[in-house]
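Message: Just now I want nothing more than another pair of eyes on a protein record. I am handing you a single protein, as its sequence and its fold in token form. As I understand it, each token names a local backbone shape. Take your time, and here it is.
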Amino acid sequence: MLRARQILVRTIALALSAAALGCGQRGPLYLPTEPAAAQRATLPETLNPAASRATAPAAPSSVPASSPLP
């Protein structure tokens, strides 16, 4: 029974210390409006980059389409 009590106390201590430290985010959330932000990936593009490449127009590349990739 002593082992279960130690686990409970350690779990509560860990939870309280994590809550006290917080995540580190401060200030209000906002959407960036500067021109450089327009070139950044959006959340769906970050989560599934293959889908965003399929819908985006193909950019010219220096590698011929028939050559295999390594």
In short: The helical segments are 2-21, 43-47, 49-55.
